[in-house]
Amino acid sequence: MNQLQNDRFLKAALREPVDRTPVWIMRQAGRYLPEYRKTRERAGSFMRLCKTPELACEVTLQPLQRYALDAAIIFSDILTIPDAMGLGLEFVEGEGPRFLHPLSHEKDILRLAVPDLSGLSYVYDAIRLVQHELAGKVPLIGFCGSPWTLAAYMVEGQSRTGFPRLLKMLEEAPILLHSLLDILAQAVCAHLNAQIQAGVQAVMIFDTWGGMLETGNYEEFSLYYVKQVTAELLRHYNNRKVPVILFTKGGSRWLEQIARSGCDVIGVDWEISLNEARLRVGNGVALQGNLNPACLREPPEVIREEAARVLASYGRGSGHVFNLGHGITPDVPPDHVKVLVDAVHEFSRAYHVPGDSQ
Ligand code: 1CP
Fold it and tell me: Catalytic activity annotated for this protein (predicted)?
């Protein structure tokens, strides 16, 4: 593995001193970039793009060619695991993901097994290619959905407001749901560890739908399984610590519990300020976030002001990875992302003064 030229992101994730606050953007490779849309068209479909390592590598690197980002994230999708479990994933233009064989009956769940990782080898091949091309420029992040978030799509068959079939299963067949979540926790852990072995230097767990639960259910159906995953992850690899980021959209109520889940970094959405989040979690974990993605549609002066506001809210010292509070939306003008990334680097120096222990 190449020596890293820029390890600001890994250092901040582990709360080690840095010279500037690192920044990357959730969904940084995606539809707001014209070059992404071109490559996707060339691939013919979203799934073909994910499953062709050369193309996945190309789109992973596209945002790094435009912006001074401090990390890359492998281009893939959280729903590749259910696809490898035989549910048959397709993306309908304008509608989002859909499974050809959703989990409609109890027997569909009882039949499931942890997938053979050879069905996901295209992800590991893409990681190796990206690492070759990056040549140590910045670290590469691998990722997965949380067991709960994957179960949401698998039971529902697609994205649907409120996920009614999933919540019905939670009420009427909790034991069956637990058996699904148990298999998914094993699958998620195996897939993240295989990504680490293929070369990613950090991993992120997306619990996009954890926030729809009430507290007791969140702990029982989402956080419990995330803890199973973090307990089994390769936390050291190639003589380096591998930081784990956990992002629960709508999860600011549970920051204290999330801080004890075994993760190193908590992804924070824009429901609360970083100042409040930092006070609540103390020094045990780093924070990632939390600019409202809608801000990137505003004029450059507003973007700079908001970047300054988020940095000031976290305050002095390491332990902050700048990001949005959720994914970038397709309507963002690409130039606005440059304004944001450059502003974070420019304004954040003042928060990292050597010898200033905070
Ligand atoms: O048409 C297209 O080109 C598809 C758009 C797209 C993209 C660019 C999808 C479909 N997935 C992706 C890539 C992707 N997905 C990445 C790539 C790396 C990067 O960040 O640059 C990542 C990390 C994801 C993760 C993902 N997929 C999540 C968790 C993050 C989040 O935003 O909450 C979720 C929920 C998905 C499912 C999914 N895949 C795609 C869509 C449109 C969705 C969301 C469906 C919904 O609205 O429920």
Answer: uroporphyrinogen III + 4 H(+) = coproporphyrinogen III + 4 CO2
